[in-house]
């Protein structure tokens, strides 16, 4: 970040920084960034500009929030959170992302690294065949249009009903794997056409399916409750979303909202922030379509989990129940939801709106929280922060601090620092694959150029991201994981 | 289809949109600009030299502005990748202004994705409107800037 901008930030408390709304006359609320001093200094100017743009959207409440993994996306920064008043506020596809309900899922096993490592190539190769990945990949589960509409409404439960999961899985998914209010009629024929053959596919970009070992346990009691019992235990992490179905929903409503903005006389600083009032017919319809796409994503990760269980079962000659392949949690990181949050009372002074929400005038209100590259972090809820394929990932627990400071949100990943184009120009995917193999990480990819784009050097230091969320007390680490096998789309 | 559009009249922009992919394309006229912008998008998903024009598709689009026409065209390429699993290496565009509208007639030559044969890149999820622009440069060359969601 440019020094002239950096010096405008004030540290409210350790690792919580604020750019006052006086910085730009269009800002309705301040910009609040959760980051170590180093991460704040290294943050892209483009991402900060996006946080400032979000602070200008109608009906925004409290602050435009950026998390330590924030980086330059489109519309909102990736790693951005904003809450909007249900009457005066807006809903924006650019605050959610095209990949609606892109999210993380973590499965345990009772296997150890010692047992898995000798078989890792077979496991990864079989996973690669079972879970299609990469450009235009189609899934093993073929749906009729009627079935896809059922998926839109039922989410992960559709897969469980079809025998592609366990009943208890549903208790370990955000919202039980089913966002209420989904309406298939709000979804276009084009979205259906894009989604109909993609259930059970991983996609591409930063999506992955990874076999990991437990590296460190930070909170033994909580880890044990979640089924993380010892160092060296093998777990499986899945990162993917709603695929072409969700991407098309985003595309359709971005176009719808462009004309709706004229109707509602809304002006935004970036067309990717095209939006409509939450309470408008267009806004309500988008929410219904978004919920349908979110449910599709929950179902997609459920189907992938089933495939993972099948592969492990085949390789180890035991049932997935005997292998204790339990779902630790499944959490979305690209979504908008109506939630109750503690806010300054309506008669509080305007300046209260930008402060940490801890004063005596607070009261609970329903708001529309947009999380783009941000994870819900409610107290007692597991949080999964996925790192780069070279550096590892974290399991955390949501905290009360998140409810007071970030509308119940925390980071979602380590966050890019280098563009895809630059990363690709610096190394070859084939070389990276060999280098990782030497380090004990067996990688299978649908695209070597895509692999190069996801190299560890393109990402921030995940340990520092976790330090920031922990210091700011918006979530607390439970365990960390290191990859031993990885599938990249 | 004679014009194999493999010459590079587009450029990826490494310093924009860290997580996604930004590029600019150029053309002497709207038709050429569209062809180059389309080829740039396809080149993100596949090494174009591994694709031949075995399958021919035609698309026709009408929009109220040249910018909307370009984004709709690029969105259509993404749509065809997911629905028909086809990637294109040859794109011929005919862009015209008709009254207040802009029209595109486009012929696409490509192949169904074959993981053994094609050297694949990364999937394009969507065409964003972030920093999107289409303009005439002082040199009279048409220029566009596009950010893709990856």
Automatic annotation (TrEMBL), chain A:
<feature type="binding site">
    <location>
        <position position="488"/>
    </location>
    <ligand>
        <name>GMP</name>
    </ligand>
</feature>
<keyword id="KW-0547">Nucleotide-binding</keyword>
<dbReference type="GO" id="GO:0046872">
    <property type="term" value="F:metal ion binding"/>
</dbReference>
<dbReference type="GO" id="GO:0005525">
    <property type="term" value="F:GTP binding"/>
</dbReference>
<feature type="binding site">
    <location>
        <begin position="412"/>
        <end position="415"/>
    </location>
    <ligand>
        <name>GMP</name>
    </ligand>
</feature>
<comment type="subunit">
    <text>Monomer.</text>
</comment>
<feature type="binding site">
    <location>
        <position position="207"/>
    </location>
    <ligand>
        <name>Mn(2+) 1</name>
    </ligand>
</feature>
<dbReference type="GO" id="GO:0003972">
    <property type="term" value="F:RNA ligase (ATP) activity"/>
</dbReference>
<dbReference type="GO" id="GO:0042245">
    <property type="term" value="P:RNA repair"/>
</dbReference>
<feature type="active site" description="GMP-histidine intermediate">
    <location>
        <position position="412"/>
    </location>
</feature>
<keyword id="KW-0479">Metal-binding</keyword>
<comment type="similarity">
    <text>Belongs to the RtcB family.</text>
</comment>
<dbReference type="GO" id="GO:0170057">
    <property type="term" value="F:RNA ligase (GTP) activity"/>
</dbReference>
<feature type="binding site">
    <location>
        <begin position="386"/>
        <end position="389"/>
    </location>
    <ligand>
        <name>GMP</name>
    </ligand>
</feature>
<feature type="binding site">
    <location>
        <begin position="206"/>
        <end position="210"/>
    </location>
    <ligand>
        <name>GMP</name>
    </ligand>
</feature>
<dbReference type="InterPro" id="IPR036025">
    <property type="entry name" value="RtcB-like_sf"/>
</dbReference>
<keyword id="KW-0342">GTP-binding</keyword>
<feature type="binding site">
    <location>
        <position position="393"/>
    </location>
    <ligand>
        <name>GMP</name>
    </ligand>
</feature>
<keyword id="KW-0436">Ligase</keyword>
<dbReference type="GO" id="GO:0006396">
    <property type="term" value="P:RNA processing"/>
</dbReference>
<dbReference type="InterPro" id="IPR001233">
    <property type="entry name" value="RtcB"/>
</dbReference>
<feature type="binding site">
    <location>
        <begin position="333"/>
        <end position="334"/>
    </location>
    <ligand>
        <name>GMP</name>
    </ligand>
</feature>
TrEMBL record, chain B:
<dbReference type="GO" id="GO:0008033">
    <property type="term" value="P:tRNA processing"/>
</dbReference>
<dbReference type="InterPro" id="IPR002804">
    <property type="entry name" value="Archease"/>
</dbReference>
<dbReference type="InterPro" id="IPR036820">
    <property type="entry name" value="Archease_dom_sf"/>
</dbReference>
<protein>
    <recommendedName>
        <fullName>Archease domain-containing protein</fullName>
    </recommendedName>
</protein>
<comment type="similarity">
    <text>Belongs to the archease family.</text>
</comment>
<dbReference type="GO" id="GO:0046872">
    <property type="term" value="F:metal ion binding"/>
</dbReference>
<dbReference type="Pfam" id="PF01951">
    <property type="entry name" value="Archease"/>
</dbReference>
<keyword id="KW-0106">Calcium</keyword>
<keyword id="KW-0819">tRNA processing</keyword>
<feature type="domain" description="Archease">
    <location>
        <begin position="10"/>
        <end position="150"/>
    </location>
</feature>
<keyword id="KW-0479">Metal-binding</keyword>
<dbReference type="InterPro" id="IPR023572">
    <property type="entry name" value="Archease_dom"/>
</dbReference>
